[in-house]
């Protein structure tokens, strides 16, 4: 009897989703409204409107889930920031979060050696760049966002500074579309455990890995960070990606320091430049040292090493 993957089972019973968001936030208010959405939205993203220098905090949740808890979190955010911001919402199909028209998502050259190519763009031979094929969609990570670009650039540098041979056990926490796991698998030709807390991200990452020819190297799994026994069983890791958000990064600092091999590298992203000090402090308390900070507009990527 054939055994379905977890992602295939979830695809058949996907529940109705909705996107909820706040617009026109000043940067100082972003953390509180981000924290409010994290109470009810497993997936949260932050975007900057450069024209107005304001921010959009956006999440996806099962339709109507946690309304009472969200109301309480928003009351606290309003009290702390002194701002009352309208929560906006609209229903989306499970396959349609962050869906874009094909015209708005073209090829992207990232760093010195990566090219992200959407599926509607014809294949053509590229010299000197690793091609990753994927589309903007429900799972975060199409290469457009500063945090994803920062991770890819950071990985490029780590992989070419003499450490590539030592990078054998690889983990991508919060894989989203699977873009970072695929980049590592293609470049290093080694297995990567790619996890996410959202079923649709697990399914999309699995499909993308297969489409990019690394389906046998990228092992996707539904998992809540380091709590998952399979994630813990894979320790110690030589390289960990964690492109999530600043507060979850801080809360995972202890687990990361335990899960990294001595001399191991962590690439952390999803944080604003103003949140770097907070994230660094949490990890330095656990014996991690900063190797490199890479700014990408208002975003920052940190490359940390365990002593």
Helical run tally: 10
Strand percentage, roughly? Answer: 25-35%
- What value does the average pLDDT take? 86
Distance between the termini: 48 Å
Say how many strands there are: 14
Approximately how much helix is present in the residues? 25-40%
Strand line-up across the major sheet:
10-9-8-11-12-14-13
Task: Give the SSE order as H and E letters.
Answer: HEHEEHEEEEHEHEHEHEHHEHEE
Structural class: alpha/beta
- What are the low-pLDDT stretches, counting only 5+ consecutive residues below 50? 1-13, 96-103
Using the CA coordinates, give the radius of gyration: 19 Å
Outline type? globular
Query: What does the largest sheet look like?
Result: 7 strands, mixed
Give a written overview of the molecule.
Helix content is 31%, strand content 30%. The radius of gyration is 19 Å and the shape is globular. It starts with 5 loop residues before the first helix and ends with a strand. Helix 1 crosses helix 6 (199-211). It is built from 10 helices and 14 strands. The longest helix is centred in the first third of the chain and has 15 residues, at 67-81. With 307 residues, the chain is of the alpha/beta class.
């Amino acid at each position: 009897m054939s055994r379905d993957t977890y992602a295939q089972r979830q695809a058949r019973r996907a529940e109705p989703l909705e996107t909820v968001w706040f617009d026109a936030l000043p940067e100082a208010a972003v953390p509180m409204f981000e924290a409010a959405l994290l109470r009810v939205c497993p997936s949260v993203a932050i975007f900057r409107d450069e024209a107005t220098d304001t921010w959009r905090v956006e999440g996806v949740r099962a339709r109507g889930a946690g309304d009472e808890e969200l109301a309480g979190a928003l009351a606290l955010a309003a009290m702390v920031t002194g701002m009352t911001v309208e929560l906006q919402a609209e229903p989306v199909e499970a396959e349609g979060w962050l869906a874009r028209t094909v015209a708005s998502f073209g090829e992207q050259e990232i760093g010195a050696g990566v090219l992200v190519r959407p599926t509607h763009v014809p294949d053509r031979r590229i010299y000197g760049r690793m091609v990753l094929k994927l589309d903007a969609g429900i799972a975060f990570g199409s290469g457009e966002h500063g945090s994803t670009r920062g991770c890819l650039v950071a990985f490029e540098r780590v992989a070419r500074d003499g450490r590539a041979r030592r990078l054998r056990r690889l983990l991508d926490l919060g894989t989203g579309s699977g873009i970072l796991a695929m980049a590592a698998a293609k470049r290093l030709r080694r297995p990567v455990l790619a996890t996410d807390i959202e079923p649709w991200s697990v399914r999309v990452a699995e499909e993308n890995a297969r489409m990019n020819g690394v389906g046998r190297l990228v092992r996707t799994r539904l998992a809540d960070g380091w709590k998952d026994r399979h994630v813990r069983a894979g320790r110690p890791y030589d390289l960990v990606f964690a492109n999530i958000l600043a507060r979850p990064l801080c809360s995972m600092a202890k687990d990361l320091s335990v899960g990294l091999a001595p001399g191991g590298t962590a690439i952390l992203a999803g944080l604003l430049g103003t949140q770097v000090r907070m994230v660094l402090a949490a990890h330095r308390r656990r014996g991690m040292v900063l190797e490199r900070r890479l700014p990408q507009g208002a975003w920052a990527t940190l490359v940390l090493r365990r002593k």
